[in-house]
Amino acid sequence: MEHYLIHGGNRLCGNVVVQGAKNSALPILAATLLCRSTVELHNCPRLSDVKVSCDILRSLGCKVTQEDDIVTVDPHDTVNCQIPEAMMRAMRSSIIFLGALLARAGSCTICLPGGCDLGARPIDLHLSALRQMGMRVRETHGRLCCDLPDRLHGAKIVLQFPSVGATENVLLAAVCADGETELVGAAQEPEIVDLASFLSACGGKIYGAGENTIRIVGVPRLQGALYTIIPDRIAAATYLCAGAMTGGDIQLRCVVPQNLSAVLPLLEEAGCTLKVKRNSILLRAPRRLKSFGTVRTMPYPGFPTDAQAIFMALASLCNGTTIFVENIFENRFRHVSELCRMGANMKVVGRAAVVQGVPCLSGTHVEAMDLRGGAALMLAGLAAQGDTVLTEISHILRGYEAPDQVIRSLGGDIRLIM
Ligand code: EPZ
User: N or C, where is the chain less crowded by C-beta within 10 Å?
Assistant: First the structure.
């Protein structure tokens, strides 16, 4: 089974060009179903989740090619409306195809995307919103058969929680629907703004993306476009933490600092020196890291739940006590037990995790349980004394483009062992 062999202790120093955002690429790939001519996506990260999305598009009849970071989608022959079950299950976020498929094909049969390591991952907010726009759903044998007795129509939709996926499904269903949609309580993540920018580039009329209320005026159809995806803010945070944890000196290029507005102050509180420019961030680590208080994960612009695990790895080496409260997912502390096996001093109490910093971590055999927890263990191995064997790395490759290559380019000792 392929795994990483990490020899810890090297300072990470150098430049990183941040990959394109996974959580933009996935909904934007789904959105290409709505376009009547070719779409060319630049800065599309080479990830397994992106590959699954491209395979889903092919299974629906699209012609898809990927060359380096450019994905080209020719959707004009989209015919099928059933996503193969194996593909639905391969990636939780495949639910994001529901809105686009309904809008394009008028019906869609999907299997429940299933939970994942983070918790139940319900889709009630998605289904309730799309029902208000005219979708009919029948559940048979674990599959959802969705169709439209009439066309999709605009509605005033209020989300009980600013769900990223539900917001994206509403945008994709509303952009070519009859009439106007007002979405109140929308998610405000940068990836929502990126999706709205892509749809606008294709001819969509979307106003207020990134704010609490988004207004969408339906248009008859979308054309293709050439579009560049934003940098991945979580990958950026990950490599900054890698530098901080190894006493290093990291320069991020092609990054959007304002998308890290909840993350950068914590790195400074931990003692790092940051130099922030328009699209670069320079981080210099202190000799000894300091604890950084209480971190509560919240919807954007609050502290991102996707950065919780990597900041817990950082906190494990910070002098003092740091507390994490995970408010978004009910099961997102699976990395704690593995970090403790490396010598971290952490305890989970309900939705909170209390971290007492230790002077150093020790390398050992650990297993990635999910994408961001796996990344946290990779960072811990780079900072630890001795060797770490990190298994189940397929989780990490869902969201990070060749992380071992990036880390080796910074002087880290990490090797992929087949
Ligand atoms: C997106 O997941 C991201 N994934 C996640 O990133 C991220 O953690 C999450 O947003 C929160 O920011 C992608 O964009 C592909 P949600 P999503 O709907 O859309 C509950 C990563 O590591 N909820 O905002 O699934 C849900 O259970 C991944 O890159 C309902 O109750 O997240 C959760 O507690 C992990 N009913 C909360 O809302 C629903 O119908 C947030 O979920 C939908 C969601």
Answer: C
CA dist 371 and 138 (Å) reads: 32
CB of 237 closer than 6 A to ligand 1? no
Q: What is the predicted pLDDT for the residue at 87? A: 83
What single-letter amino acid sits at 126? H
In a domain, residue 251? The reply is: no
Backbone angles phi, psi at 216, to 5 degrees: -125, 125
The answer on 59 and 182 residing in a single domain is yes
User: Which atom of ligand 1 lies closest to the CA of 329?
Assistant: 34
In a domain, 248, yes or no: no
Estimate the crossing angle of helix 164-174 against helix 22-31, to 10 degrees: 30
Residue 330 CA: nearest ligand 1 atom is 34
| Cβ neighbours for 124, distance < 8 A, ≥ 6 positions apart | none
Residues 325-370 have pLDDT tens digits of: 999 998 899 999 999 999 999 999 999 999 999 999 999 999 999 9
Least confident of 60-64, 189-193, 298-302, 407-411: 60-64
Which residues constitute the domain of residue 300? 3-16+290-417
- pLDDT, averaged across the chain: 95
